[in-house]
Design a protein that fits this description.
Butyryl-CoA Dehydrogenase, subunit A, domain 2, 386 residues, Butyryl-Coa Dehydrogenase, subunit A, domain 1
Length: 386
């Protein structure tokens, strides 16, 4: 994103990029393709030392951000990880850390947050089906009262890093509304089944809860009142996803421009042909617009803007739509080599395609945006009538 970076943010961006280029280059991503975890925990802990897991956690709980705007700082990491289709549970771990920091009891925060911030513990968010609660997805886990606690039952899928997580943040229907519980993966009744993923290093799982007992001390936020928290968690996740996609898209265009400049046809670089220039101009325009709308969404979520939900859906729709079109266009411009396993383009196509569909497709986000606009219109009419 084209954030107006402070000196500290600029240095952090450069440090993160150098770290990823040295410690997790594309060759490492390819090598992790058959690894069950998809990332190295020691490497993740070193990333945590750079601050990747602390930006959404208050200083009082061991966190802290560079600029006081944790969402914007974290978006820098997401974009840099997108440039190298990096491994690691960036989104789920940070979403869970934010949720616990915002709604967990003092005891829960003290138990979980230090290890999450240190990168020694990985967390996953078990919410509804693809799309998230704010897009009308079904929350498929229920929590029934049981003495002083609750019993969880149901299935959550797909859960990013579900098979690698030590802690699970479970969004459940408690009858009168949504509630969230932090459940250790080793809890009796929790079973996890790995799912296939189009991405080489992003891992997903189906998480089943079979009469899983939890206490009130594991409750994150007030009982039956988690809808607003879930909405914000989803917005943060989508913002980070958009930033990652823009970073990947940026690198795809760089890669394609380099290829078109080096490759010749009839004695001329491919980049010199007018028809190709026109196609590249369109893609460059889509990229710059994606930068802009992704930044707008990040700032709206950071500031808690009233129209943040609409802006986030607009960003997800635009970035998802144009990113996949752009990477397909770049693949075509590479010719035959662009569709080989040896070329890196397919790694970016996989990541961008996954991000397009994971938290709501462009069409779902447009429907959500239309619904928000209609609600705002109806509310305006009621106000006028009154």
């Amino acid at each position: 994103m084209h954030l107006a970076l402070t000196d500290d943010q600029q240095f952090f961006q450069e440090t993160t990029r150098k770290f990823l280029e040295q410690e997790a280059p594309i060759a490492t991503v390819r090598a992790l393709a058959d690894d069950p975890a998809g990332f190295d925990r020691a490497w993740w802990a070193r990333g945590a030392e750079l601050g990747w897991t602390s930006f959404l956690v208050p200083e009082a709980d061991g966190g802290g951000s560079l600029s006081g705007a944790g969402v914007l700082d974290l978006a820098i990491v997401a974009e840099e990880m997108g440039r190298l289709v990096s491994p690691g549970p960036l989104v789920p771990t940070n979403v869970v850390a934010m949720a616990v920091a915002d709604g967990g009891s003092a005891e829960l925060r003290a138990r979980v947050l230090p290890e999450l911030v240190a990168g020694s513990v990985v967390a996953a968010w078990c919410t509804g089906s693809v799309g998230g609660a704010a897009l009308g997805a079904h929350v498929s886990v229920r929590a029934e009262p049981d003495g002083d606690g609750f019993v969880l039952g149901g299935v959550a899928a797909p859960v990013e890093a579900g098979g690698q997580a030590d802690e699970l943040l479970v969004t459940a229907d408690t009858g009168g509304g949504l509630s969230q519980f932090l459940v250790p993966r080793a809890t009796a009744g929790v079973s996890i089944e790995a799912m296939e993923s189009v991405d080489l290093v992003r891992r997903f799982a189906t998480v089943r809860f079979d009469a899983v007992g939890v206490t009130r001390g594991q409750l994150v936020g007030a009982l039956g009142s988690a809808a607003a928290a879930v909405e914000r968690q989803l917005q943060v996740a989508i913002v980070l996803q958009c930033a990652e996609t823009v970073g990947a898209l940026d690198r795809v265009l760089e890669m394609t421009l380099e290829y078109l400049g080096d490759r010749t046809s009839f004695g001329r670089p491919l980049a010199s042909y007018q028809a190709i220039k026109h196609r590249f101009a369109d893609m460059k325009m889509w990229l710059e617009a994606s930068h802009g709308v992704a930044e707008l969404a990040a700032r709206a979520v950071q500031d808690g803007a009233r129209d943040a939900a609409a802006i986030v859906s607009a960003a997800a729709s635009y970035v998802g739509e144009h990113a996949t079109e752009t990477v397909q266009e770049c693949t075509q411009l590479h010719g035959g080599i662009g569709v080989t396993w040896e070329h890196d383009l397919h790694l970016y196509l996989r990541r961008i395609t996954l991000d397009r569909n994971l938290l709501g497709t462009p069409s779902q986000h447009r429907e959500h945006l239309a619904s928000l606009l209609l609600d705002a219109r109806d509310a305006g009419r009621e106000s006028s009538d009154a």
